[in-house]
Specification:
488 residues; alpha/beta; binds flavin-adenine dinucleotide
Length: 488
């Protein structure tokens, strides 16, 4: 067709559509694995200074640690070790069995800055002002229709495409997939402000009289306020003034903490939606393109980053022709249930806050008593919110560790597991006594290590820090069979 340029890009390349946090992590991982990767982004090049997400949970920090980025990100924000909710309930993040027993409060743009710098350093080809408008796929690749900066249409081809293009995903629409779900809250507001009399903790959450408000400290003098007023549910485009934010906060928290100088005011509605399929042939969906939830649980960005960490090494293996049967399908099988669980849990806090039903009001009033009485429930909730509690399905009869997150641990000869994961390969960690497993061939794409302590379990850790296989007292034949099954 005249006026359409065709650019075949590099054969075997992956195109990532959208340079939000999900796309940036994925593109960086692919480039680190030596896969040619192009990112198409509709916006001109500039990281938005709108903070959007502000909480980075423990499992996300562990994933960033496995890329050598966690310490840099920690330096940009403030950590919270206890969450105080509804004046009564305190959730103790300090008990999390993680190297990062806290929530990091930092604006989303700090996460994006770090991930973009890494992706650029690794050679990712960024093309800004490139908007994807459609796609077609065949057995060897995907053709993407793209509007380029000069307004002309072009077709780009890649072996695989990942749509990380947010909740209105053009990739999802081009695949003809529905995005079923509902609106949880039709009208929430967000504001980034300064406070003359800041609250004591880093995070304050409360609700009363048909209102709900949350204040979080970024640690640099700015505070994020999120709120809702039952009596004033309006469309997103109705202008929002600081006076409205102050008034709702006063009603919800008893004080507006001397709020002034808003640098950002925004109204939005909150949906809970999930696409039924994360993979269609050679095209994948990740992050907000695949699922959106209430912002109250602070899960949106975190879940997208975990999607990217799950998919990147699988896609890299497929591009190299080394993906075992079913590996690419395991992305949907593992991440769709997590997305569904997040969808269910993240709306809970807001539902509780806005509860009118007498039963729910009672739960809110007695929330601390409920939590005290049910410590295992609280521990489970903490594990879920922080992301460290999720595990993936394991084959019947496999070792209980298979599919589980492998916590960081010291390795014999110095260093930690999450440092060993930084070269993007599988890591086989054997007990000190199992010298043969630890000293075998590394050319198949595995790094071999030993636990520093006296652990008896040999674990094959996937590049995303989950156990692909584990066995107690494993002999050399069992170890080699596991490597063959997972690495080809
Ligand atoms: C107002 C607001 C407040 C939020 N608050 C929180 C919070 O407190 N906590 C939390 O965890 N999450 C929050 N979120 C959600 C969080 O910001 C998202 O979950 C996160 O940004 C998802 O990242 P992503 O990379 O999947 O998508 P996005 O960040 O949406 O990135 C998608 C990218 O794709 C690009 N794009 C879109 N269409 C195309 C196209 N056709 N072609 C090329 N490029 C395209 C976009 O320009 C964008 O850069 C909030 C979101 C909003 C809007």
């Amino acid at each position: 067709m005249s006026g359409i340029r065709t650019d075949r890009t590099t054969p075997g390349a992956v195109i990532v559509v959208g340079s939000g946090p999900t796309g940036l992590l994925l593109a960086g991982d692919l480039a680190a694995a030596g896969v040619p990767v192009t990112v198409l982004e509709r916006r001109p090049h500039a990281i938005s200074n709108l903070s959007r997400a502000f909480g980075v949970h423990a499992r996300t920090l562990e994933q960033l640690d496995a890329r050598g980025l966690a310490d840099d990100l920690l330096a940009t924000g403030t950590t919270i070790t206890a969450l105080r909710l509804f004046r009564r309930l305190t959730l103790d993040l300090g008990t999390l069995p993680s190297r990062f027993p806290h929530l990091l409060v930092t604006p989303q743009y700090e996460v994006e800055r770090l991930l973009e710098r890494r992706a650029r350093d690794l050679g990712v080809d960024f093309r800004h002002e490139h908007e994807v408008t459609g796609l077609r796929q065949d057995t060897t690749g995907v053709d993407l229709d793209v509007r380029t900066p000069d307004g002309t249409a072009a077709t780009l081809r890649a072996a695989y495409v990942v749509g990380t293009d947010g909740h209105r995903s053009a990739v999802r629409r081009a695949l003809g997939l529905p995005f079923p779900g509902t609106s949880v809250i039709t009208s929430l507001f967000l504001a980034d402000v300064r406070l003359a009399e800041p609250p004591e903790g880093v995070l304050t959450v409360d609700g009363r009289g048909g209102t709900f408000a949350m204040i979080a400290a970024f640690g640099d003098g700015w505070y994020r306020v999120m709120g809702w007023d039952r009596r004033h549910e309006v469309p997103d485009d109705v202008p929002l003034g600081l006076e409205e934010v102050r008034e709702v906060t006063r009603r919800a928290l008893g004080t507006d903490h001397g709020m002034h100088d808003a640098r950002w005011l925004s109204r939005f509605h909150s949906d809970e939606r999930q696409v039924p399929q994360y993979r269609v042939g050679r095209v994948f969906l990740a992050g907000d393109a695949a699922h959106v939830h209430s912002p109250a649980g602070g899960q949106g960005m975190n879940t997208g980053l975990q999607d990217a960490a799950n998919l990147s090494w699988k896609l890299a293996a497929a591009v190299r022709g080394r993906a075992p049967e079913g590996l690419l399908d395991s992305y949907h099988a593992e991440r769709h249930p997590v997305g569904r669980a997040v969808l269910r849990s993240s709306g809970g806090l807001v539902r509780l806050a806005r509860a009118q039903h007498p039963g729910l009001c009672l739960v809110r009033a007695g929330v601390s008593a409920v939590a005290r009485a049910a410590r295992p429930v609280r521990t489970k909730a903490l594990a879920q919110v922080s992301g460290i509690g999720y595990r993936y399905p394991a084959p019947r009869g496999s070792h209980p560790l298979t599919g589980a997150r492998v916590p960081d641990a010291a390795l014999r000869g110095g260093g930690r597991l999450y440092e060993a994961l930084r070269d993007g390969r599988f890591v086989l960690v054997a007990p000190v006594a199992n010298e043969r497993a630890a000293s075998g061939d590394e050319s198949v794409g595995v790094r071999r290590e030993q636990w520093a302590d006296g652990g008896r379990t040999t674990v094959l850790v996937r590049p995303d820090g989950y156990a692909a296989w584990a066995a107690d007292d494993a002999g050399p034949a069992a170890v080699e069979a596991a490597l063959k099954a997972h690495l080809g």
